[in-house]
Amino acid sequence: MNITATLLHYANASPPHARRAFYAVKDRLLRKYARFTGHQIQEIRKECWGPWNRESDCRAGCLGEKCPHCRGTGVYDIRWVRLERWQWGKYVFHIPAGDTRTIPSPYPPDGMIRGRIEHANYGRKSHEALLWLYLLCGEWRLLWRSLTGACSRGWYWWPLLNVQRVAMNLSMFLSWRKCFCGRWYPTWGSGWCVCRKCRSLPDEPIPF
Fold this sequence. Notes:
Blueprint: H1 2-13, H2 19-33, E1 35-47, E2 52-53, E3 58-59, E4 75-88, E5 91-100, E6 112-114, H3 124-136, H4 140-149, H5 159-173, E7 176-178, E8 184-186, H6 196-200
Parallel strand pairs: 1-6
Antiparallel strand pairs: 1-4, 2-3, 4-5, 7-8
Helix pairs in contact: 1-3, 4-5
């Protein structure tokens, strides 16, 4: 399963927009194949941007000691997330296991992750790995959604990204829509926004 671990590593570096479904697959794979190695604490601080300025329709920035949002601390919100650490091959993954806004006791001096976990930027390799991950894990519904949800322009060396480009265009061309009368009608080649029966009805006069 080393190839699955590698695919998960690349896909996890740039998760898709449907993150909840992806993280469910990640959680299931790690609990089945990876090795649990302990916990870590992640500290997430949100800087204060100050009160809302109605004139500029944006936040004016922190006001320092007089700021009503942070009371002069410069930090609007802080929370600590407990992370489960999993080892799968040569890769380390984390799964959130709850958060709190009270200082954990005892406060861990070591193993603290400050801020967001930064991943390497693999570019389109992450998107290709996500498609292969869904394919090898038998996640057919997620694979179809990823293939037909979005694509980038151009052709690539990545085979499934090329399949995605074709699948998305075909899904848009061969899609069916529901008319306001409740009937379903094909959209390919017609360009209409209503079904054939509704198009055949006479136009009603405008009451003014």
